[in-house]
Model the fold of this input.
Amino acid sequence: MKLIFIGTSHGVPESDRRCSSVMLEVNGFYYLVDMGTQVVEDLRKRGIALENVRLAICTHPHGDHTDGLLSFVDLVNWYFKAADPLILLPDSRLIPPLRAWLTATTDGKPLRENLRIEPFEEGVVYEDENLRVTAIRTKHCENSFAFLIEAENKRVLFTGDLCRPSVDFPQAAFETELELLVCETAHFSPDDCIPYFDKAKAKRVLHTHVNARRWADALSRQLAARHPYEYGVAFDGLELTI
Done:
């Protein structure tokens, strides 16, 4: 399983960070977690055929995690017609305006019939021969989720955006052996996370959704400290094989 961090910024893009998006590659197929930026551009630059994208799923409805969806779905609808990704959204209210926008931009032409855009709830929301995704409800907003992703007998947990670690840090981190735990650090200090990382069963911890200016001192302190797991901060373009 390979992870590519496309965007690792907080709520707005920075000069060196775009908004949230991560791509997973398993056996030549691709799975997207969050789409806060123009992911199609990255796929094209990397020579990845959209026909090989199986899934696009968002942790919650906020724009810095969903704004890239419009261009992705638009291009899948009218240009990359052989592509057939399942697009899973955390709030059913997102779907009618998305469809209406796309219909309006094609002069009222109906969307292609096999365009799959569906809402999801807590639990196992996706499974194929390569990968399984379990959604875990959090309290960041009305419909926000963490994702436990299992592939090749390995597990990665994405916290998504949280209310704060003391309120809704995913219990799965303490119950499941993880190769990697990916946790935001936009809404609270890295210092707030360490007690929960220390209890988690993770070999490696990475911060994403980074507000580096707000938490610069805490990040520097924690990066310099010793931890019983590999600890770091993701950046745009980071590629990991686990």
